[in-house]
Amino acid sequence: MDISPPLVAFIGHSGSGKTTLMEKLIKKLRSDGIRVGAIKRSHHEIDIDKKGKDSYRLRQAGSNPTVVASENFIGFMMETDEPVALADLARQFSGKADIIMVEGFKNESCPGAKVHRFMFGPPFGAGDGNGEADDDSIAGFITAGAQAEQETDKPLFQRDDVEALAGWIKRNCLNFK
Predict the structure, then answer these.
(1) Domain with 152 in it: what CATH number?
(2) Averaged over 35-52, what is the pLDDT?
(3) Handedness of CA 39, 36, 176, 142 (dihedral sign)
């Protein structure tokens, strides 16, 4: 039984266009009435709080987690001793999103959710740490520019062809006809 909406994950090297593509896909899917959530893995320390603000002072005093809420926005901050699992993050979207766009988490499974991973390439299956072309977790590939067709039975999308990728997502992840 799935515990979260389906996930579409984009994996690839820094600067390959993952965030830009996700931004365009989110806008396109939202314009089609689809509720889209996003999860991004950061390899850097992050802090959405600001020094001197009340919430910062409460965190400095030892509050963990800390929630800041206004009428239309919720900010949830929690320090953890170990990395948070993708499945735990995805569960937070249940009932709030129809689909979740994920950047990163390339080696992490998500029990209870269907994950469709797209690998930025080529080379496909060259053992570059992004997965292998015949890996069952890879749903397809994203390329930039005019690149030769690769021998794979997985779909190959141009990075700027948002319409085609959005159509695939709607048909294969959201059961649109």
Answers:
(1) 3.40.50.300
(2) 83
(3) negative
